């Protein structure tokens, strides 16, 4: 079968990267004077999440160094709900894979699931806090502000969500998502977050904002009294930087990998325009994507397959890699069972593409519009079928770096690497 030829395209976003991340983190924390909020020689608990944040270990080490330079005794604890298969060992392992362990951080990393109840909110939601964090003299959060994959609101993923859900460990995550199903996750995050603040244990946080190139673009020290307001403001800012798939419509989107390190939903629902409950194209301002072919899992997802249910077709190798225990725990805790339904699957990339293209309402594969990306976090490099050339040329943010090139498969029937396709196609005529 002759697939259309492809053009490899670079999407040029504004580069907002911070030149010296440790220096900027130290400046932010010093100017916010967090140290004055802790008694001399006090023990500070630093909560760190589980997402694939750029330079996370560098940022966390800078926070540790700040506290140590002010005479405090910091320790790190995982603030990640049900991730890491909802075990203390699994959550410590997640942090270690991001380079966060005692040897690199210069302080203890303490992972445990025991929590302390902080009472109930007006909605009847019991709030929890990691016990070792509660026993400290103060808690500081290090987390990224970004849009959430399950809902839209003024507060989505950020310091407030980490405080509300991440600090509550597995005990909190279970009931928070149950209430979220009833009253909405934003309402739960605000309600539980306010209850946690009443404990008096939270010092504030260091908010991380990334640009569309997945660079660390802004670090903002957020005092506890400003957390809710600043979370809203920073959420609006980072949404304005969001990268998108740069065409109006695709018959088939090929995605190399999904993973918890890429998105809480495995792949970013607001990029692929598909809800966590697998509704097609719910967002009017996002590209229309009719079929998704998912090739594999990220190595950093620890075989958690959350998100595969949003695809229309996947490979056998992806299905065979899934560790269903953490996948089930994560999905059922989040009340998103549709996200782990197993799509139809075949042994090779070629067979998957040959089986799925006739379902898009086209009689010739040459008329099918294809897009190909590595994952939903890396939006700087795509390959698009040649029938999209006019739209590509009309977009000033796009630069054709190779093409036209044939969609090539290796001896096993699987696609060559996207970057390799780009390299092989350099110098061809556009």
Would you kindly provide a written description of the structure presented here, covering whatever features stand out?
The protein has 430 residues and is an alpha/beta fold. The chain folds into two domains: 6-13 and 242-425, no CATH class; 21-240, Rossmann fold (3-Layer(aba) Sandwich). Helix content is 31%, strand content 22%. It has helices spanning 21-32, 56-69, 88-97, 102-105, 131-134, 159-164, 169-183, 185-197, 227-240, 269-272, 316-321, 324-333, 349-356, 389-393, 418-425; strands spanning 6-11, 43-48, 73-78, 115-120, 126-130, 138-144, 202-210, 216-223, 249-258, 288-297, 313-315, 344-346, 370-373, 381-385, 398-405. Helix 1 crosses helix 2 and helix 7 crosses helix 8. The protein starts with 5 loop residues before the first strand and ends in a 5-residue tail after the last helix. The model has no long low-confidence stretch (mean pLDDT 92).
Give a quick set of tags describing it.
globular, 8-stranded mixed beta sheet, 31% helix, alpha/beta, 430 residues, 22% strand, 15 helices, 2 domains, 15 strands, Rossmann fold, 5-stranded mixed beta sheet
SS strand fraction: 15-25%
The oligomeric status of these chains comes to: single chain
SSE pattern, N- to C-terminal: EHEHEHHEEHEHHHEEHEHEEHHEHEEHEH
Write the CATH fold name of the largest domain.
Rossmann fold
CATH class of the largest domain: Alpha Beta
Shape: globular
CATH architecture of the largest domain: 3-Layer(aba) Sandwich
Helix proportion: 25-40%
Q: Figure out the total of helices.
A: 15
Q: Kindly, what is the distance between the CA atoms of the first and last residues, rounded to a whole number of angstroms?
A: 23 Å
- Name the strands of the widest sheet in spatial order: 12-11-10-9-13-14-1-15
Q: Characterize the biggest β-sheet.
A: 8 strands, mixed
């Amino acid at each position: 079968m002759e697939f259309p030829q492809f053009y490899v395209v670079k999407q040029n976003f504004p580069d907002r990267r911070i030149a010296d991340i440790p220096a900027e983190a130290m400046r932010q924390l010093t100017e916010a004077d967090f140290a004055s909020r802790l008694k001399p020689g006090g023990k500070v608990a630093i909560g760190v999440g589980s997402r694939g944040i750029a330079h996370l270990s560098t940022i966390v080490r800078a926070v540790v160094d700040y506290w140590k330079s002010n005479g405090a005794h910091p320790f790190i604890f995982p603030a990640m709900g049900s991730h890491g298969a909802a075990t203390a060992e699994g959550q410590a392992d997640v942090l270690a894979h991001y380079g966060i362990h005692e040897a690199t951080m210069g302080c203890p990393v303490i992972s445990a699931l025991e929590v302390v109840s902080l009472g109930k909110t007006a909605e009847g939601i019991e709030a929890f806090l990691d016990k070792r964090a509660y026993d400290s003299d103060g808690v500081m959060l290090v987390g990224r502000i970004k849009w959430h994959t399950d809902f839209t609101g003024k507060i989505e993923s950020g310091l407030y969500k980490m405080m509300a859900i991440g600090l509550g460990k597995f005990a909190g995550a279970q009931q928070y998502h149950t209430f979220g199903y009833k009253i909405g996750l934003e309402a739960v995050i605000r309600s539980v977050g306010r209850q946690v603040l009443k404990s008096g244990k939270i010092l504030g946080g260091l908010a991380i904002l990334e640009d569309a190139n997945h660079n660390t673009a802004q670090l903002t020290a957020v005092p506890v009294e400003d957390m809710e307001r600043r979370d809203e403001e920073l959420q609006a800012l980072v949404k304005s930087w969001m990268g998108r798939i740069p065409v109006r419509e695709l018959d088939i989107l090929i995605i190399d990998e999904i993973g918890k390190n890429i998105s809480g939903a495995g792949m970013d629902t607001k990029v692929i325009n598909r809800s966590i409950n697998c509704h097609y194209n719910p967002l009017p301002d996002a590209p229309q994507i009719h079929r998704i072919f998912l090739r594999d899992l990220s190595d950093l997802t620890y075989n958690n397959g959350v998100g595969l249910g949003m695809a229309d077709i996947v490979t056998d190798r992806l299905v065979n890699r899934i560790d269903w225990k953490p996948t089930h725990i994560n999905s059922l805790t989040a009340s998103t069972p549709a996200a782990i339904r197993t799509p139809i699957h075949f042994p090779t990339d070629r067979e998957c593409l040959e089986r799925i293209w006739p379902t898009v309402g086209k009689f010739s594969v040459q008329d099918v519009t294809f897009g190909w990306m590595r994952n939903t976090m890396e939006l700087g490099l795509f390959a698009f079928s040649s029938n999209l050339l006019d739209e590509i040329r009309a977009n000033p943010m796009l630069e054709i770096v190779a093409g036209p090139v044939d969609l090539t498969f290796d001896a096993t029937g699987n696609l060559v690497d996207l970057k390799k396709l780009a390299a092989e196609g350099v110098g061809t005529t556009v």
